[in-house]
Specification:
Layout (H helix, E strand, L loop, with lengths): L10 H53 L2 H13 L2 E6 L5 E3 L6 H17 L4 E6 L2 E7 L7 E7 L1 H51 L13 H51 L5 H33 L7 E4 H11 L1 H7 L2 E6 L4 E4 L1 H18 L5 E8 L5 E8 L33 H12 L2 E6 L5 E8 L8
Parallel strand pairs: 7-9
Antiparallel strand pairs: 1-2, 1-5, 3-4, 4-5, 6-8, 9-10, 10-12, 11-12
Helix pairs in contact: 1-4, 4-5, 5-6, 6-10, 7-9, 9-10
Bound molecules: adenosine-5'-diphosphate.
């Protein structure tokens, strides 16, 4: 990735860095604690052992003869503990053959230490890398026993241990590097894949599939991106479809308007009767264009949610009569019959203007698709419980086949058949009806069978007249 300003850090490197830092810290901490613990317990063990051995020997000396004591002490020497019995003047009484020189200097120190503790006790002290245990013993002439253990053994053992710790630490770090590299690689690979797919998607490839099932968060993100893709695709398809359909529908009236306008100029301008007829065609086609543009605007408004519901209580009975009256011209000029069965003074709470769109679209469809008897049945009835009002608009036309029933509510769906169409339709009408009623949370539907006409219904809530001012 090329960055113009400050480049953000790669998740891979950040993960690796912090994982390693953590591994180093943990390893060092664990090893230092272990090392201190082992070293201290080895030291403590040596002290215990020497104290224990020292008191054992001083007890033995009390009871045994010179030869036995000498043999006994030799046994300890094999165990790494050298035992000396020294007279107060520095003469080494046991074992035999030890030079007295160094003991002349040491013995004063021992006597001073023992005097400091007093009462015939014992002392434990470190001198020249040796751990010493000293006490007065019953070996004639106020002599002392010194048991000495070389700490060099412990030092070299801890050195070996330290070596092992360093090797183990190195192995742990190596494993940590491998594990953190693999994990960070896997995680960033998943993100990289999503990002590569997103780039393809942004370039207009709607067949991409965001897939990552390895980590839940990334799987969730993939699902979200897949639904975004579907939505974008749907909206793109809708726009393309709408553009194609609308431009097709615009063409016919525009061609007609142009043709009839030319006709008026060239042929019928002076003939009032013909001119009137041609002008009527132009007006009708202009109305059709207006209807089409209004439908397109409505569908995009209700879809974008910009058109909020403005509900209030109104007289549905009066309102319905008002719409039916608009269709009067069809009764008068084309022999349509509207059979009504409408209860008086029914009130509902809804967005009056939008419900007007709904009823107008349903009436328009009934007129367009009704049978040869040109009859449309309109009923508005209160339910037995007084809580609901049902509007039914029924025609006697060819009806809608079972396969097509669920489709008719979709945008721009038209059953592929020719109908006589006194009211202009765009294929958007039922989609607008559906969105408006869904936004109101009103139930609605259609019952229809091929050859037996269709009956569209809407279920309104019934409210008392004066629920709102
Ligand atoms: P249009 O402008 O084509 O009427 P609509 O969205 O209102 O568009 O209706 C969609 C399709 O549903 C129509 O093209 C028609 O095929 C079918 N349709 C709607 N109302 C009826 C009806 N009362 N009888 C038969 N078919 C209908």
């Amino acid at each position: 990735m090329k960055c113009r300003t400050k480049c953000p850090k790669s998740i891979n490197k950040v993960l690796l860095k912090y994982f390693l830092l953590l591994a180093v810290l943990l390893t060092v901490l664990v090893e230092v604690v272990c090392f201190i613990f082992v070293k201290n317990s080895m030291d403590a063990q040596a002290r215990d052992r020497l104290t224990h051995t020292g008191s054992e020997i001083s007890a033995f000396i009390k009871t045994a003869n010179e030869k036995e004591i000498s043999d006994y002490l030799r046994g300890y020497a094999n165990d790494g503990i050298n035992v000396y019995i020294v007279a107060p003047d520095g003469e080494v009484l046991l074992p035999f053959g030890v030079t007295e020189g160094e003991w002349n200097e040491k013995i004063d120190g021992i006597i001073n230490r023992l005097n400091a503790v007093g009462g015939g006790g014992s002392v434990l002290y470190v001198e020249n890398s040796n751990l010493n245990y000293a006490t007065a013993v019953d070996y004639g002439g106020g002599s002392f026993m010194v048991a000495s253990y070389s700490l060099k053994i412990i030092r070299s053992a801890t050195k070996v241990l330290l070596g092992y710790f360093i090797i183990a630490g190195a192995v742990v770090l190596l494993v940590a590097v491998l594990v953190s590299y693999t994990i960070s690689q896997k995680l960033s690979d998943g993100i990289k894949n999503l990002s590569t797919t997103a780039v393809r998607f942004s370039k207009g490839d709607f067949n991409v599939n965001f897939a990552n099932a390895e980590y839940r968060e990334l799987a969730d993100l993939s699902d979200t991106l897949n639904s975004v893709r579907d939505e974008v695709k749907k909206s793109g398809d809708f726009q393309r479809e709408l553009l194609a359909n609308v431009s097709h529908d615009l063409k016919t009236p525009l061609t007609m308007i142009k043709a009839y306008a030319s006709m008026i100029r060239e042929i019928s301008g002076d003939n009032p009767e013909k001119r009137e007829k041609h002008l009527q065609v132009i007006i009708d086609e202009a109305d059709r264009l207006t209807g089409l543009v209004n439908d397109v605007l409505s569908v995009s408004k209700v879809n974008s949610g910009l058109d909020a519901i403005n509900a209030k209580v109104f007289n549905l009975t009066e309102f319905l009569y008002g719409i039916i009256n608009k269709f009067d011209y069809l009764q008068e000029t084309q022999g349509y019959k509207f059979m009504v069965d409408i209860d008086a003074n029914l009130y509902t709470r809804a967005d009056e203007e939008k419900i007007g769109q709904v009823i107008y679209n349903l009436m328009g469809n009934a007129v367009n698709y009704t049978g040869g008897d040109k009859t449309v049945f309109i009923s508005l009835k209160k339910s037995l419980t007084d809580e609901r009002i049902k509007l039914t608009i029924k025609d006697t036309g060819k009806g809608i086949s079972k396969d097509e029933l669920p489709e008719i509510w979709n945008r721009y769906y038209r059953v592929k058949e020719n109908h006589s169409r006194p009211v202009k339709g765009t294929g958007l009408g039922l989609n607008i009806v559906k969105i408006i009623l869904e936004n109101h949370s009103f139930d609605f539907g259609v019952e229809s069978e091929s050859g037996k006409g269709s009956s569209f219904w809407v279920d309104f809530p019934s409210v008392p007249e004066k629920i709102e001012a």
